[in-house]
Amino acid sequence: MEPQLGLHALLHVFSFLEARDLLCAAQVDKVWNEVSRTKELWRQLCLRRWSSCKASQMTLGTQTWKQYYLCRSELEFRMESGRPEKDFICKAIAGHKGGIDELAYISTNECRFDGQEKSVVCTVSSDSTVRAWDVQEGTEIWSSPLQPAALVNLVTYPRLQLVVTVDKLGLIKVWKAENGREWASFSLPTYSSALQACDHPEGPFLLVASVEGILYALSMPQLQLLSRTSVFPSSPTSLLCSPDCQWVFASTQDSDLGPKVFHTRSLLCLVEDEPPVSTTLPIWLISRACWAPDETARLMVMHRNNDSRQLAISTYELGAKQSQEGVDVMVQQIASFLLPDTMTPPHLMKAHGSQLILLVSGSELVLFTIQGLQLAAFQDHQKPVTSLWVDQSRVLTASFDLSLRVYVWNKENKFPVLKSCYHLLGGSHRWASGFTHVESDSMSIVGVEARSIGTSILRSYCFNMQHGSDDCVN
C-alpha cells in the first residue's frame, strides 16, 4: 500500500495548483475533495488574479471564495467572448425627450454574485431632467421634476448614493440616488466648465470650475462653500482629481498659461489671506491629461513641445513635503516623448496601470508606454471614436459608426497586451447617428445612442451568469 500525504502536506502541495487543477483534484476522492475546497486556497487564487480583491470594501456576500472565483471567471469569460444572447442580453432603454449629455453609474463597481448585484446608471439631458435606470431590467427607476434649464453634466458618489448635476445656467443640485429627492443646491455666477467628485479621506467634496476660471470646493452633501480660487482668469478650466484625491490638476486648453497642480488639503482648509498650496508645471499649450490609476500621484500630460511645437506627452511624479512655511509641492519629470508627426492630434487620452497610455486619434486607438514605445494600434471602427473607457480588465470604445468595441487585457507579458475582441452593435442607421458615450461596471456595459431627431436612448448589454461554470475557468 502506497503511503498517503497528510492533510497539512496535501494542503501545501495544493497551494501551488491553479484553479482548474484544484477542480480536477477534487474528483480524486473524499479527502482530496475536502482539502481542495479550503477557503485559504481559493482566497489566494483570487488575490493573485484580481488585485481589487485586496480592497477592504470588497463584499463576498453569501459567496465562498471558491464560488466567487468561479463566478468572476465565468463573467470575464463571457465578457471576452461576447456571443449575443448566449453571453449577454441587449436592451434599448428610452425615456428622455432630449439628447443625453452625460451618464454615470451610481451602483458600486464591486463584483458580487449573491443575488444582490444590481447595475444602476444616472443620466442628464437637454430635456431638463435627471433620471436613474435599472440596467438589467431596462426600466426607469425615477425621474426628477422638470428643471429650470437643460442639465449638462453630472457626477456620482456610489458610496454615498448621491448624484450631483449642473445645468447650463450654473445651478448645482444634489439628489438622493434611491428616490431622486433633491438634497441641496448651489448657484454659480456663471455656468460650469467641469465637475469632479472627490471621495477624500477627510470627507467627500465636490470640485467645480467655472468658465471664468474660478475653482470652487464645496462640501458634500450640503454644498457649503469651502474655498474659491482664481486659477485661469476668464478661461474655461478643466479638472482632474488624482486616484487618492490628494491632488487636483487644473488646466486650460491651448493656452500659454502653464497647468497647475493643487494640494487638495489646502483647498479644503484654506487659510485666510493665503492662497492654496499649488505649483505650475513648466509646459504650455495643454490639450489632454490623465492620472495613472495604479499610482497615487503620477500624472501624464499632452502638450506642445517648447522647441518644435510638436505634440509631446510628459509624465510627472508629485509629492508634498512639510516645511516651516507650510507644505512644499515637489515635482519630478520621469518620462517624456514626442508623438509621431504622422499622427492626427489625439482627442481622447486615458492611462492603464502605471506605465501605459491609451490615445484615440480619429477612429484609431493607440497604446504607448510612458517612454514612447508604441505597443499596439487598432483601427476597428469605420468612423471617429467618441468615447473611451478603461479599467483593469477591459477597454471600451464608442463610435459614430453605431458600435461599441470591446478589448481585454492580457497581463502575462512585461507590458499588458490589449486584445481586440468584438463589436457590440447599436440600432438602425436609419434612426441613429452613432454612440456618443460608453460606461461599464463589473456586470454590464451601457452606451448612449444618439438619434437623428435630436434625442438619445441608452443601450445596455448585461452579461449572463450561471453562477460558476467550471468550463469558464482558465
TrEMBL record:
SUPFAM superfamilies: F-box domain, WD40 repeat-like. SMART domains: WD40. Residues 1-45 form the F-box domain. GO terms for cellular component: cytoplasm. Residues 1-19 form the signal peptide. PANTHER family: EXPRESSED SEQUENCE C85627-RELATED (PTHR46550:SF2), F-BOX ONLY PROTEIN 3 (PTHR46550). This is F-box/WD repeat-containing protein 12-like.
